[in-house]
Amino acid sequence: MIPELDDRRSALRVAAALALGAAVSLGLARFSYALLLAPMRVDLGWSYLTAGAMNTVNAGGYLVGALLAPRWLARFDARAALLAGNASAALLLAAHGAASDDATLYLLRLATGVASAASFVSGGLLAARLAATHPRASGLTLGIYYGGTGLGIVASALLVPPLIEMPAAHGWRWAWVALGAAAAVSTAVIAANTRPLVAPPARAADREPFDWRPFAPGLAAYFMFGLGYIGYMTFVITLLREQQLGTAQIVAFFVLLGAGVVASSWLWAGLLQRCRGGEALALLNGLLALATVLPVLGAHPLLVYASGLLFGSVFLSVVASTTSLVRHNLPAALWPGGISAFTIVFAAGQIIGPSAVGWIADGSGGLQRGLASSALALALGAALAWRQKPLHAAAVTGSART
Fold first, then answer.
1. What was the pLDDT predicted at 208?
2. Exposed e or buried b for every residue in 235-250, given b needs 16+ CB within 10 A?
3. pTM
């Protein structure tokens, strides 16, 4: 028990501050790009493949960061790693506004991905340990952390469109600077409100290797989630612009999506609390497949808004479900390795997704066919997740030692 957080209200208040880490690492550092893609594509003369490759490179950096995260967490306090990752992301986002060529932007997207992974994995570990102090509210605690991404999405929706539509040329540059400033403010708030959270590096005697084999179905399902969801988050705004939706409608769509992410903290808390196998991962992937295919079927605003609200209310709970799966089935000493393993396969799927969807979209079917392929990947992820059964922590610990 963390002494300063021995009451539930204090723990949830700290979880809310911790959620700003997810807001920065995913909401501002990654998903804001969907709003910037169209003006940057026009201004810089990109194909869909190049536009998608920018997010592929970002996901590649995220994979590097996820691979390095266990080493960082073995040497540094998790809160220090979270703050360092967030502060680095803030600087890198602002630097996007000064970039003038594709090579520099690729490098910045790569570095931002590394910083985001350091922040997100560290924050996930802190959220898991915070949840352990109040087991009856563990699902809500994890949901609040991952739902923080929605705050970043809403902030992006309010910051980016007015700036990219300024009369001055290259308004997207100022949007990147504003995102960096928002990330810096968020980092300061996290630092001021998470002091009770301490996650010191594990002693060498306490660290055990993570055995991925018992989690193979869940890891495969999570790979398909990473592959499928990122295509939607990269290209859906561009699709809506192609379908002649106005700026106000697009902002409303993105705000609804972000609000859905925040609401997901409460919507799925009970499910995450109860499910010890892959049931939650399967159900949520299936709902995402439905949300992804809706804008492919038509451009009616109600259909579009339903897609955004459903997608937002589900997709970060998929991430929370994997942390919950690790918590339910492994001893605390194996949590860093388990969370990192799921983050690695998630990042690998994200590397493939944007470029694959962009390549498909450059063909005759356009973005509709690209997003349909994302929906198929998510449906496959749902089928794989059903095969993940709950484990006994003692048995897994024993297999990890052999």
1. 63
2. bbbbbbeeeebeeebb
3. 0.78
- SS3 string, 141-171, reads HHHHHHHHHHHHHHHHHHHHHHHHCCCCCCH
Give the pLDDT score at 400: 38
Pick the more confident residue, 2 or 184: 184
> Does residue 192 contact residue 63 with C-beta atoms inside 8 Å?
no
User: Is residue 147 classed exposed, middle or buried when 0-12, 13-18 and 19+ CB atoms within 10 A define those classes?
Assistant: buried
The mean of the pLDDT values for the chain is 85
What pLDDT does residue 14 have?
Answer: 85
Residue 29 DSSP label:
I
CA-closest candidate to residue 195, choices 324, 390, 68, 17: 17
Residue 36 near residue 88, CB atoms below 8 Å: no
**Measured distance between the N- and C-terminal CA atoms of the chain, rounded to whole angstroms:** 31
Rounded to the nearest 5°, which phi and psi values hold at 191? Answer: -60, -35
Longest dimension (CA), the chain: 65
Buried b (16+ CB within 10 A) or exposed e, 166-178: eeeeebbbbbbbb
Give the model confidence (pLDDT) of 240-253 as tens digits.
888 888 888 888 89
Domain ranges within the chain, ordered by starting residue: 3-401
Within 8 A by CB and 6+ apart from 166, the residues are 174
Q: Is 12 left (phi over 0), alpha (psi -120 to 50) or beta?
A: alpha
The answer to whether residues 333 and 401 touch, using CB atoms and an 8 Å cutoff, is no
CA–CA gap between residue 348 and residue 271 (Å, rounded) = 27
Taking alpha carbons only, the member of 328, 230, 232 closest to residue 278 is: 328
Q: Which residue has the higher pLDDT, 289 or 273?
A: 289
- Looking at domain 3-401, its CATH architecture is Up-down Bundle (1.20)
Q: Is 196 left (phi over 0), alpha (psi -120 to 50) or beta?
A: alpha
Residue type at position 382: A
Locate 207 and state its tokens.
Answer: 């660290």
